[in-house]
Amino acid sequence: MTRTVSRRRLLAGALAAGIAVPFGAGRAWAAQSGRLALPRPTGPHRIGIVDLHLVDRSRSDPVAGPGHHRELMASVWYPAITRAGSPAPWMPVAPYRALLESAGFDPDAAAAPLTAAHAGAPALAGRRPVILFSHGAGGHRSEATIVVQELASQGYVVVTVDHTYDAFTEFPGGLLSVDRDDVSFTPWDSTADMLFVLDRIEDLAAGRNPDAERRRLPAGLGDALDLRRIGMFGWSKGATATALVMNEDRRVRAGLSFDGPMESQPRPAAIDRPFMLMTAEFSRADAEAVAEFWALLGGWRLNVQAAGAVHSSYVDHQWLIPQLGLTGDELESYIGTLDPGRAVRIQQAYPLAFFDLHLRGRRGRLLTGPTPAFPEVRYVT
């Protein structure tokens, strides 16, 4: 969607405009080093991460030509035993710089933040629900890291995926792949990627290593995957793909949309499993496709919307951009009027409550109606 792409371009421009500065009481930023910062997850678990290079031999590469297969990069986030090694970066250096350069800005202006995850840390014992994430148009698998690491800290395994040619990503050996305007990429293409990744998750759970280079996997990772409890969420195009994946594969038991436009050819069909909408610009009142999709939801459903939210308010952009010192109308043009600190609390609380209810059977009060804890969140009937 045009608004999705333009907002990503705006983000790139904002990130390149300056370095991190203090924002909010009681929070420490690495302003002097020029590195942006992420909020800490609130769950009790340490977090591990491993990157996977996946090759889908059932599909050809649309750019490389005959004899070349579609390749993807994915990350698996999981509860870990220890904090081994250094914190993983929000995004590798090369694609991060390319993201900034694509918008015509200095790629050295601000370093990417560090996450709470540690590469290769041994997985904590116990079977965990699995959640997949699909990013927006021209985005990357890191764009919802606040939500991803919150879920992992609360005991979930989360698999994030870069959709090659619709993403900024880096493959082993340093091969950089960027968002390409000359390659058609629809929500159905994202869906095909996620269905392929679902199969690779089954490989992991069966003790097989799906990584193309057969790089060592973290100890205990396969045993941590509970394939009876799989959910998915996505932002924008990735939210539409979430609905399409649920149409195609009943392994996904619950789906969550971060302001998905629900536009595809064909559009998403009826779903009889739990689905939740967190809307902003693509609300049921403003987007016909979203209203039509809502009417097709035959299972548990909920639509919430935060006052002042814009399209990117439910992903990391809402938190990163204010660190750059923007004020007034300039800041509002990027993030709307939803307070970034409140946006983080919404990002941490509502997805967790949704997946806790539908993948763990943990009933709480947050999803039952308005609450004084989140006065800016409206429950759209």
Note down, in words, how this protein is organized:
GO terms for molecular function: 1-alkyl-2-acetylglycerophosphocholine esterase activity. The protein is of the alpha/beta class and 381 residues long. It has a single domain, classed as Rossmann fold (3-Layer(aba) Sandwich). 28% of the residues lie in helices and 23% in strands. It contains nine helices and 13 strands. Strand 1 and strand 2 form a beta hairpin. The longest helix has 21 residues. The protein is globular, with a radius of gyration of 19 Å. It starts with a helix and ends with a strand. The N terminus is likely disordered.
CATH topology name: Rossmann fold
Question: Could you tell me the radius of gyration in angstroms?
Answer: 19 Å
- Assign the CATH superfamily: Alpha/Beta hydrolase fold, catalytic domain
CATH class: Alpha Beta
Going by CATH, the architecture would be: 3-Layer(aba) Sandwich
Put simply, the count of helices is 9
Sheet with most strands: 11 strands, mixed
How far apart the termini lie comes to: 26 Å
Give me the side-by-side strand order of the main sheet.
3-4-1-2-6-5-9-10-11-12-13
- The counted number of beta strands is 13
Order of helices and strands: HEEEHEEHEEEHEHEEHEHHHE
| Unreliable stretches | 1-10, 12-32
Mean pLDDT: 90
Which geometry do the CA atoms define?
globular
Give the DSSP E fraction (strand runs of 2 or more residues): 15-25%
